Amino acid sequence: MTVNDNNPPQFKPDRRHFLAALAGVSLTSATASRPLLAAEAKTTLAPSGKNDLVRVRVEMDVKGNVKVPENPLVSRTSQVTVPIKSDVVFDYEERYRRPDGAAPTTDIKYAERFYHTAQSTSTLNREESTVQLRESVRQTIVRRETSPEVIYSSDDYFTHEELGLLRTPICSVGIDQLLPTTPVAPGDKYRPTDAALISVLNLSGVDVNEVTAEIAEIATDAATIEIKGNLDGSVEGVPTKLRLVGKLRFDREAGMCTWLAMAIHETREIGNAEPGFDVAATIKLMRQPMDETVGLPKTPAKVAWNAPIPEDRLFVDLQSRHLGIGALMDRRWRMMSDVTGSAMMRLIENDKSVAQCNFRSLARLKPGQQWTLEAFEAETKRTIGKPFTQMVEADQRLSAQGLRVLRLVADGMVEGVPIRWISLHFSDDQGRRVLATFTMSGNQVAAFAGTDAQLADSLRMLETESAKAVATTASGSPQAPAGSLQGGGADSLADPGQETPSIARLPRTKRSGSGNVEVQSASDLR
Question: Domain containing 364 — which CATH number?
């Protein structure tokens, strides 16, 4: 291994050598640059803010286990462990933006980013997959008013897989915040603040911060900082534990951190929206100033600094490849299951399940034939049975995608708990049909906030082999949705081999401290 002050050490790819290098390698060199003597005055290591256009490369190697519940309808504590290995590469331009008149050292809340490369190659339980950004979403905006940071494209919408790819454990915009805030000398130690670690590690919060940083060396051209420690925090309401060791290089001439190497062991609990995991990641981040843009526009876009993040850019393109459908939905919606003939998504907010939506492919009707609203309403009432109390709404429309949509809103009571079902029946002129059923407790109706209208207007039929495979030819007469609203039907988890819930079954309930019966989530309706 060749080591000098001008270039970071070249680590061997395996994690053992990476950790050994981080723990033991010193970047000192007798010929490269002169270290400052301990007796010399302390030095301020602060970002200059003069390099607002940079090129960033990030390489990550992740190994470990993903933890998924055996049956999410019963408990998240009983789990199946699945091995995972993933290699991720990012190469992008980043332009930092500040309000007019802001100090050069002001924390960055807005950045423009153009991805030249964004790709992950993963093996999960011996099944390989590759995810990479499409050309239409390579130019993005990064907003950092909240954490984790929010990324969106002005040109198109991310898919669920693309959003997952961009949720990185290290944020290049924030690494300068790891620098000490007071003058230091070699050997000095300090604690990075909670805010700095939240920013750099893309967390939502920090509960326990035992991370320390030590000034390993200060030379005339650069300084090296060693970082290590333990951290307990959360990401979107899900608890996580991190154990980390790393080195940070601050370029004194450029006035910015240009290199970060870090090994992270993270143990995250199972959430309602994402599986848990116990993984070790090695991360190398390199950042260098650029003279001019390559992928980003030459002229920066105008920024409305007092305006909130535009909600119309925060939709995600959720797709079921097995059903052959896609829809633009609020990012709180996550596709949880996608199998032949059915799919399921959940509305998750702060790791609480607000509502659930189940999709079923229905028997294909003859071209030109449509199911009537009256038949749909009668079948829904019959299927709900005794819990049914009232039909709140019934209407039909032609969506923006050219699909005929039948919509029903029904209320019911199960063990004194108010329940609401919203069913949407989609059909096209070729006879393709899909049924979507939202299920939620009555106290979640306000949080649901008419999400069904977004689905009704944006759902589109995709021409895929999966869609053709599950489509069947029906007889001429309208009929009840086969396998949908009846016993294990439209609001069921589409997971083969597991007991499926039905809207006619009783919910699993819980009594709060006040004695009130609560339905904890849509998945409790079983």
Answer: 3.40.1000.10
